[in-house]
Task: structure prediction
Amino acid sequence: MTNRADEIRKKIRDLVADYHEAAFPVREFVPGETFVPVSGKVFDAEDIQHLVDASLDFWLTTGRFAEAFEREFARLFGVRKAMLVNSGSSANLVALSALTSPKLGERRLKPGDEMITVATGFPTTLNPAIQNGLVPVFVDVDVPTYNIDASYLEDALSEKTRVIMVAHTLGNPFDLGAVTEFAKRHNLWMIEDCCDAVGAKYDGRLVGTFGDFATTSFYPAHHITMGEGGAVLTNRAILKTLAESFRDWGRDCYCEPGKDNTCGKRFEWQLGELPEGYDHKYTYSHIGYNLKVTDMQAAVGMSQLKKLPEFIKARQSNFEALYEGLKDVEEYLILPEPTPRSEPSWFGFPIAVRPGAPFTRDQLVNALETNKIATRLLFAGNLIRQPAYRDIEKRVIGDLKRADFVMNNVLWIGVYPGIDDARRSYMLDVIHEFIQR
Result:
């Protein structure tokens, strides 16, 4: 790049900082008038500068920022490889699909195999199983950790069970001690969906480092954002290669974009019924996708990654303040609890309205929303009640009473870093005033 171009780029970066200050000023919070989101992106001038810097390269696919992010994100988790994809949902699809590869021999997942999951999960934790012809096995949820009830795992096991895939709900780790031991004892694949839980720990160890695969999301609601984006993490070289293949069109070649002949024998392979020497870059060993992220998204992620520790700290502080502020109304509300031995990286603050309370969950939701405090339900509630899943092939363990309880009685409110003391106090005031009425 010429010195002239470098000088112009620096001027653009300086102007972007000025633009951020003018376009995104800090606005005063006015109770009852200012909307309190349940989640959202928290960004500064540096984030926009990174985005613009990447756009000036005009390298519109995966590039230098993506490579740097994958390296730093893997280092954060202490795993061998992080692979960027275009969403957390795609990360789940890539991770599970990789386990269907014929290259895994007898351990490959095949149509008709069973996957254990929790009935209150997010749809795209479940969908890859259905899309790959697996049969989901639904078990109940624990209240008030809102994670899979590990006591049902043995009941869920059958001769067809091959994989367990569940999420750490709202940043609260599931019982990794019980689930990991169960998976190892029965030689099952294990995928940790960490989309809501980046930075959470179990026994002092980051979630995402216990299973064969882990997945994360960088949607604006999550702990850091790229706008859209996600990642697949693994410690196993073969799984890294398979995940990249499914992400990158299903190709057998593992060259990075813009590179050739990484293997050193590009025109010396003979695979399938192809002629010997057929270009390895156009040899396909899987029925894959194109799920890569752009370098502009990765550039934002690189900037956001620096802020992750303070983001997590803010989430934990907001959670603790809401918990302390609602202890006096536990007669009516069930407050959330961390899983034993865990350090959550909270995504939200779940609240359950007790049976017999003089109000319903829906009435509390209406009171909050009317006062411009955003709420969410605990994702899909009981997944088997959703119209998309009523007719799928599945097994259900027990009566899923607690999943139905979650569907009818639970909501959650925000703890994301954009919530400050004033907003937090307002949220507590609205809840208390509603209960007093």
Notes: The mean pLDDT is 96. The longest helix spans residues 3-23. The first strand starts at residue 81 and ends at 85.
